[in-house]
Amino acid sequence: MELWARFWVLVTHILRFTTLSAYEGSDQSQSPIAAGVPAEHLEPAFVPPVAADHDGPIFRPPGHRTDKGDGSDFKCNYTAMKGYRNCSTPLDRSCWLFNPETGDRFDINTDYETRAPTGVEREYWLDVTKSDIPNADGYPFIGATLFNETYPGPWIQACWGDTVKIHVRNTNPDRGTSIHWHGIRQLNSMQMDGVNGVTQCPIATGRNFTYEWKAMQYGSSWYHSHYSEQYADGTLGPITLHGPSSGNYDEAADIPLLMTDFRHASVFDRSNSNYSITSILLNGKGNVTQFDGQKKEEGLDIPTPYTLVFEKTVPRPKRYLLRLINTSIDSTFVFSIDNHLLSIVSADFVPIYPYLNTSVLIGIGQRYNVIVEAAPRANGTTQRRQDDGNYWIRTWLASCRPPPTDSSSYMQTGILRYNSKSTDNPKSFPWDKISTACSDETYTSLRPVLPWIVEPPINNVSTTPYLQHVSVMLNPGTGGFKDSFLAFRNDTGPNPGYTPLQIDFTNPTFNNLENTGTWKELWEVFPEGRSDKVDWVWLAITVSTAAGGDTDAHPIHLHGHDFAILQQSEQTVYSENNLRLNLLNPPRRDVVLLPASGFIVIAFKADNPGSWLLHCHIAAHASGGLALQILERQADAASMWPSKSPARTSASSLCSGWESWMATSYAPTASPTTLPTDSGI
Predict the structure, then answer these.
(1) 614, 554 in Cβ contact below 8 A?
(2) Backbone dihedral region of 552: left (phi > 0), alpha (psi from -120 to 50 degrees) or beta?
(3) C-alpha span between 324 and 345 (Å, rounded)
(4) What is the rounded average pLDDT for all residues in the chain?
(5) Were 224 and a residue from 112, 231, 260, 651 both cysteine, which residue would form a disulfide, CB within 3.0 to 4.6 Å?
(6) Beta strands 58-59; 599-605: pairing state
(7) 124, 181 in Cβ contact below 8 A?
(8) Parallel, antiparallel or unpaired: strands 390-397 and 333-337
(9) Nearest alpha-carbon partner for 469 in 539, 420, 372, 554
(10) CA–CA dist 171, 206 (Å, integer)
């Protein structure tokens, strides 16, 4: 096998340099300028850890200012790591911890999939409540579902190597919930992934559940409900796992920057006329009047836009770290700041070699850490800098969806100021030739610092076709469930057909790991990982152009893994005989944009036992059935979590609570949308 793997890598290495790139797309993709690095507090709901009696380092995260006044005073705590010192400095953020006696380091080159520092336990408490968002953008949202009655939800912070414990209580009287920690690897902890019907039953009203996971990765992410489309009602918040960076910076923005599309009525009540009132929010603030002539509610003011404040310094300008997260239900954004270049340093949880651009495209669920110099530049339209020091932060809608029809300012969602006392709106102009093409960042720009060499696939390697293949299909009019309209068709299965996923709230996959028979058809389970050692699974995903095809672009998210993107193409014809696969350190992440009418080929290591969801992150598409489960190393999973294990006992207790609530409190005539008629995820 090892000899075959080396031969395979050699062949594809030659092919890669023959064909130049594994990306085929339009010339309107988000192209970089050049490689290199440029010269309101969210409630924490957090209890600081108690330091142990050791001499490892305790320090504030890099770039954390002590005069922000947010009261969190968050610190990384490695007191258990005797002899180590914090080595992160503004001149070298790639280093995290260093032991001067042994020379051991934890840094940007450490294999974070297998090794992490020893941190502390961080605890958070989240209440899922039925609440209102009185004024995010000049118009109220009555009947939202929130964490701790705040929107966005509390900022969950941890440091690389910490154990994170989150106690979730559901006080929403109408619906259950389950909370997914987006992008968290959950190595050997499937039961903590937070997907009702897959890893657990929903948390019933009045019940609670404690999630616990290890911060093996570092970077930016978010958490959200995975109960049907519930996160569209506000059930989401940011996650920051502090760690090293491939780019150097002086300070970090006070909080992550969450961008989202926003409606004003529950997703479970689409008949409400307020559901059609839309806007864009940046960190929970927007302006509803910027969209198609919509009016604000009488008596409500338009909130002050989210504001960043930069400080001008000499002789070298300060560099600021921004954490960008797309938490939308339907929208892909292009983020830019007038007159300021972005140095992109990570994609999802994967550190990459920095590259410069005027903008960055962020699909739903994707995250980018970027570094911005406090040094305005000429952009071809306006002067080098605005006299008042004010610049628009813009979140453009990518062409995946049509923009507002009669608004030229909808994308002006935030302000960068050099004078914190200024209250004037910026007069700045956007960068020339900002592309809003519905296309991921340029394939060749996303170069991971920690390299992967992808090995041949274990799935279908000796058959024709050799590559597992699924395609996105629209409802052909038969099969599925009431609200299904999309599915992954298994084109290499024994019976290809339209099978949208629909989970069973009362009987999650986690409680069926011993199953040796067939799986329920609408569960859409793909068994993978067929050997006793770590192997690679390859999967081709296409957008069918045949009858029953679909022409949308889809942000595809895989739980429990990062995956390598072997090829990403906007070509409408998919043929295994004409692939240009890149196996030598290809881009990797946990959300990739499947081009409209195109295809992607992804690969991941089958090293994480359990059932992992693969789905489109457009909320309506996941709700409509565009998802499947990848059941990985089932025998190992069944061995890890036998029926009487503590994890299975806890899962059964959660399911009993759900069934009890269903039997005593569910009133379908009074609340007909309490149980979904959709996929459930």
Answers:
(1) no
(2) beta
(3) 11
(4) 88
(5) 231
(6) unpaired
(7) no
(8) antiparallel
(9) 539
(10) 5
Beta bridge partners of 319: 373
Dig out the tokens for 351 from the structure. 């550190």
Short-list 256, 242, 257, 305, CA closest to 279: 305
pLDDT tens readout for residues 554-604: 999 999 999 999 999 998 888 888 899 999 999 999 999 999 889 999 999
CA–CA distance, 198 with 560 (Å, rounded to integer): 13
> pLDDT value at position 198?
97
Give the pLDDT confidence of 92-117 residue by residue, as tens digits: 999 999 999 999 999 999 999 999 99
Q: Which is nearest to 62 in space by CA: 252, 221, 309, 345?
A: 252
Strand ranges inside 120-187, DSSP E: 121-133, 141-147, 156-159, 163-170, 179-181
One-letter identity of residue 445: S
Q: What letters, b where the CB count within 10 A reaches 16 and e where it falls short, cover 42-63?
A: bbbbbeebeeeeeebbebebbb
CA distances from 78 to 61, 174, 270 (A): 12, 42, 49
- Nearest Cα neighbor of 137 from 3, 246, 264, 327 is 264
Q: Strand, helix or coil at 414?
A: strand
Give the tokens for residue 642: 């036998």
**Cβ neighbours for 128, distance < 8 A, ≥ 6 positions apart:** 145, 146, 147, 168, 169, 170, 171, 172, 177, 179, 203, 225, 235
Longest Cα pair distance anywhere in the chain, in angstroms? Answer: 72
Q: Is the pTM of this model over 0.90?
A: yes
Single-letter residue type at 329: I
14 token code pair: 């030659």
Tokens of 335: 């983020």
Contact 393, 306 (CB under 8 A): yes
For residue 533, give every residue at least 6 positions away whose Cβ sits within 8 Å of its Cβ, in sequence order, or none: none
What proportion of the chain, given as a percentage, has pLDDT over 70?
A: 85
Instruction: Report the alpha-carbon angle 108-114-116, nearest 5.
Output: 55
Report how far residue 349's alpha carbon sits from residue 219's, in angstroms, rounded to the nearest whole number: 5
Q: How many residues does the chain have?
A: 681
Q: How confident is the model at residue 9 (pLDDT cuts 50, 70, 90)?
A: very low
How far apart are the C-alpha atoms of 561 and 460, rounded to whole Å?
Answer: 20
Is residue 388 classed as helix, strand or coil in its secondary structure? coil
What Cα–Cα distance (Å) separates residue 396 from each residue in 364, 414, 554? Answer: 13, 12, 18
| Distance, CA of 337 to CA of 392 (rounded, Å) | 6
Residues 199 and 608 sit within 8 Å (Cβ to Cβ)? no
The pLDDT of residue 67 is 61
Band the pLDDT of 499: cuts 50, 70, 90: confident
d(CA 412, CA 281): 10
